[in-house]
Amino acid sequence: MDDLKEASQRKMSFFATLRAVFWSFFGVRKKSDYEQDAAQLNPLHVAIAGVIGAAIFITVLLTIVKTVVAK
Predict the structure, then answer these.
(1) Phi and psi dihedrals of 28, rounded to 5?
(2) Which of 18, 21, 27, 67 counts the highest number of beta carbons within 10 A?
(3) Which helix (DSSP H) or strand (DSSP E) does residue 42 occupy?
(4) Domains of the chain: which residue ranges?
(5) pLDDT tens digit string along 4-33?
(6) Burial (CB count within 10 angstroms: exposed 0-12, middle 13-18, buried 19+), residue 20
């Protein structure tokens, strides 16, 4: 239980977390950057950023499909 409290109090900003999550969607990360982020990321921020990223990804895909099908 203490590990969860400690992890949720990490100091990385939400926008830095968004950046790390979006880079992970592309699968392009340096190992050193990944290790640094993993030590500083707040798990709650990662979950929220993942949901936001997935929603954006789905919206973009739907937009592309609707555009292609309409032509």
Answers:
(1) -115, 100
(2) 21
(3) none
(4) 2-70
(5) 555 555 567 888 888 888 888 887 777 887
(6) buried
